[in-house]
Amino acid sequence: MILRNIFISGLLITSSCGLLTKKNTDPNLRTVNFTGTVHHPYCGGAKPTPDVATGYYESMKFEKFKIIKGAEFKEGLPVYEEVTLDVEGNATFHLEQGHYMLVRSDKFLPLDEFMKKNGLIEEKNYELKGNDCFKTWQNTVDLYFNIENDTILELRQNAKCWVGTNPCMEYVGPPAP
User: Fold this and answer.
1) Number of domains the chain contains
2) What mean pLDDT comes out for the span 42-69?
C-alpha cells in the first residue's frame, strides 16, 4: 500500500512538472538552450596541484541578459527579450530565425550607475582606466549569434585575478606569494 502511494505520488509529480514546462508550439520559433560560465584563473598562493593550476569554471548564476535582434549594435536599439540565468547559469528561450546580440542587462544602465556597479573601488591596490573604458565596455556585445534551427549557445568569459571580468580595472597590488 505504501509503495503504491509513493509510486502514484511520484507519477503525479512527474506528470505535473511536465505540464508546467513551457512548450514551444509556434512553428516559427526555435528553442535556444543557453549556458553562461566564467573561467577563473589560479591567482597564486600555495603551490597548486595540476588541476588547481588550470583554474576553475563558475556559472553566471542569476545573470540577466537582454537579447537584441540584428547583427550590428547601436545605442537605443529595442530589446527583443530579456533572460535571467538560473543557479547553474542556464536558460531556455525561444526565438525566430535571424541574427541576434546578447548583452548583459546592466550595460543598459546610465554610465554613472554602470560604473558604480562595476568598479568604483577606492583602494590603493586597484586602478580604474576611466570613463572612456567603461563607455566602450558598456557598448560591447557579449555574444553575437544566428538562429536557424534549435540551438545550443555557450558564453564563456575569462576573469582576471582579483578584478573578475571587468576590463576597466587593473590590480596593481603586490603579487600573491
Assistant:
1) 1
2) 93
Residue-wise pLDDT for 133-148, tens only, equals: 999 999 999 999 999 9
Ranges of beta strands (E only) in 41-140 are 56-59, 64-69, 81-84, 90-96, 98-104, 126-128
Q: d(Cα 153, Cα 155) in Å, to the nearest integer?
A: 7
**Phi, psi (rounded to 5 degrees) for 41:** -75, 165
CB 84 within 8 A of CB 91: yes
Confirm whether 148 is domain-assigned: yes
Q: Is 7 helix (H, G, I), strand (E, B) or coil?
A: helix
The answer to whether residue 96 is domain-embedded is yes
Structural domain that includes position 151:
28-105+141-167
Flag whether 14 is in a domain: no
CA neighbours closer than 13 Å in the CB half-sphere of residue 23: 5
